[in-house]
Amino acid sequence: MAALCERAGLPTGGLRLLLHHATGGYFAPDAPALVRISSAADAPRLRTAVALTRWLTSHRFPVTEPLDIEHPLTDDRLTATFWVYYPQTAQALPAPRLGALRVGDTTAGWVL
Predict the structure, then answer these.
(1) How far is 6 from 71, CA to CA, in rounded Å?
(2) pTM score, whole prediction
(3) Do the bridges between strand 73-74 and strand 102-103 make them parallel or antiparallel, or are there none, so unpaired?
(4) Which residues contact 77 (CB under 8 A, 6 or more apart)?
């Protein structure tokens, strides 16, 4: 994983596991970035995910932004994607708030 971060030009000092479900999520504090690690077999799906997320971002849709670097990157076992890290608050938002996305009257056209 560190080699994939280095290929992306990210500092690897202090990488810390934040979550591990179907993929691993690592915080790179010196970037700051979130590095998502998946199997190498997931590379085609992740290329689509990064491209779609870039498109959503370009339309000012409120999504986690991919870093402005070429990715995903793959080696013989892993695929890494790289995302903007957003510091978390101690207070989690309630699920209804997270799920209440609708078209609205904001400048971007989206309201949470």
Answers:
(1) 12
(2) 0.80
(3) unpaired
(4) 39, 40
